[in-house]
């Protein structure tokens, strides 16, 4: 076979005929590397004798229900969709030092304690280092199998001999296959190793968990095709300054996407948080201008969180717009609507927005809570601490209804909140003392909550 060279972008996986400093597909700089590929004779077809006829079925075929394996970690099982599915491939990504290895070591020990055969393969540490961490976390009594190896051929042979229920590979960027002529961590190696491990999991009925590094943009390093190969993609998120950690499913073939699990980092490892709303709101001692409680939905879970805003006079020609945990473009839209529809200008003011606890919000239902926090800070008017706010703001200034409003109100009532601000159409829950204040548009909300505001 002839061997040719091709140039592949490490960020998006695009293939180029020659090297350049900038990828034309994704626009990233200095991400194109050279790889050697083998090509067969051109124009030669496989022919019908090369394959076999595959069995076919229809949609009415009755399949056996999935037998999920439970880890005993309720937050992990929730994110996986109710437990670990046999023959599944899972990719877990997160920032360095965020706790991926700690989480998966605890998960592997939990599986082993419940009778499942679990195998943990590390390519980044020595086996003694993993044992030391396991002893510090109180996992020494778990019947967990441990290995330190980076050669993919040796790992597959070991998995075939041991046949564990779940195998954890930490990490996919350190694995190397001897039939690929490139360095470990390159696009070709990551793609080839992920493909071999995923195919092996499907053939042998073993659940494989792959740990992936992330880039500075927060995406899993390597080609995006790896995310398409696996069944589930999980991101382990959190801020270094906070002790909260969020395990978020961004893809799941066996459960709901965007489901989250909440953990707390402690000296003895990661602890599950059964009631994250109460934990995220635990630091709200007294009402303060610019602080608003938003009733959100993460996956299937209602979650209350605090939105903090600060509006201050600016001496700059272009005032600052700093956002942590929310979309900066969405903030610009809210400020534009406040100026165009309510006549409130922010052209000479810096605006800072923060989602407390290191959370990240993506749903548009937070629009009204963000607007309320900004106005509360601008007017130095604190909103009652027992009030939750949610609703989507359209470009016309109208308030639009949101999904799963009942679940949001039920979570607020459970935590002792007595009032809720939202769009029209909300209904009072039975046996609930929560007072609802609904509004048709943004101007009606401003008049009711803040009164007349000088522009």
From TrEMBL:
SUPFAM superfamilies for the chain: P-loop containing nucleoside triphosphate hydrolases (SSF52540), Ribosomal protein S5 domain 2-like (SSF54211)
Binding site for ATP: 94-101
GO biological process: recombinational repair
Domain notes: The middle region has homology to RecA with ATPase motifs including the RadA KNRFG motif, while the C-terminus is homologous to Lon protease.
Transmembrane segments: none
Record's protein name: DNA repair protein RadA
Family from the record: Belongs to the RecA family. RadA subfamily.
Recorded GO CC terms: cytosol
Residue numbers covered by motif RadA KNRFG motif: 251-255
CDD domains: RadA_SMS_N
Alphabetized NCBIfam families for the sequence: sms (TIGR00416)
Functional summary from the UniProt entry: Plays a role in repairing double-strand DNA breaks, probably involving stabilizing or processing branched DNA or blocked replication forks.
Molecular-function GO terms, alphabetical: ATP binding; ATP-dependent DNA damage sensor activity; damaged DNA binding; hydrolase activity; zinc ion binding
Pfam families, alphabetized: AAA_25, ChlI, Zn_ribbon_LapB
């Amino acid at each position: 076979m002839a061997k040719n060279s091709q140039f592949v972008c490490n960020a998006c996986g695009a293939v180029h005929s020659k090297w350049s400093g900038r990828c034309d597909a994704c626009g990233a700089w200095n991400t194109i590397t050279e790889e050697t590929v083998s090509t067969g004779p051109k124009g030669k077809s496989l022919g019908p004798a090369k394959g076999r006829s595959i069995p076919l079925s229809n949609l009415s075929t009755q399949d056996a229900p999935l037998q999920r394996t439970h880890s005993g970690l309720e937050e992990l099982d929730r994110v996986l969709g109710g437990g670990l599915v046999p023959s599944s491939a899972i990719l877990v990504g997160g920032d360095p030092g965020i706790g991926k290895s700690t989480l998966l070591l605890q998960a592997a020990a939990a599986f082993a304690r419940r009778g499942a055969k679990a195998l943990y393969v590390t390519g980044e540490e020595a086996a003694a280092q993993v044992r030391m961490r396991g002893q510090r976390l109180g996992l020494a009594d778990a019947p967990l199998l441990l290995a330190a190896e980076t050669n993919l051929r040796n790992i597959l042979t070991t998995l075939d001999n041991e046949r564990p229920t779940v195998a954890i590979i930490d990490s996919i960027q350190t694995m190397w296959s001897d039939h690929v002529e490139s360095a470990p961590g390159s696009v070709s190696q990551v793609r080839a190793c992920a493909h071999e491990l995923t195919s092996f999991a499907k053939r042998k009925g073993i659940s494989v968990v792959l740990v992936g590094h992330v880039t500075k943009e927060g995406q899993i390093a390597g080609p995006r095709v790896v995310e398409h190969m696996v069944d589930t993609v999980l991101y382990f998120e959190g801020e270094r300054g906070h002790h909260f950690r969020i395990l978020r499913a961004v893809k799941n073939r066996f459960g709901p996407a965007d489901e989250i699990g909440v953990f707390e980092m402690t000296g003895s490892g990661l602890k599950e948080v059964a009631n994250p709303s109460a934990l995220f709101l635990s630091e709200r001692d007294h009402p303060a201008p610019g602080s608003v409680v938003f009733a959100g939905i993460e996956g299937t879970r209602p979650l209350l969180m605090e939105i903090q805003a600060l509006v201050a006079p600016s001496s700059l020609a272009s005032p600052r717009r700093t956002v942590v945990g929310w979309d900066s473009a969405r903030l610009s839209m809210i400020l534009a609507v406040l100026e165009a529809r309510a006549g409130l200008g922010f052209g000479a003011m810096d605006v800072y927005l923060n989602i407390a606890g290191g959370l990240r919000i993506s749903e548009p239902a937070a629009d009204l809570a963000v607007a309320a926090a900004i106005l509360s800070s601008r007017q130095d008017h604190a909103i009652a601490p027992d009030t939750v706010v949610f609703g989507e703001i359209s470009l016309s200034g109208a308030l639009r209804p949101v999904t799963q409003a009942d679940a949001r109100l039920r979570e607020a009532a459970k935590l002792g909140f007595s009032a809720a601000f939202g769009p029209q159409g909300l209904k009072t829950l039975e046996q609930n003392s929560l007072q609802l204040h609904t509004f048709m548009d943004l101007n009606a909300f401003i008049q009711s909550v803040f009164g007349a505001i000088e522009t």
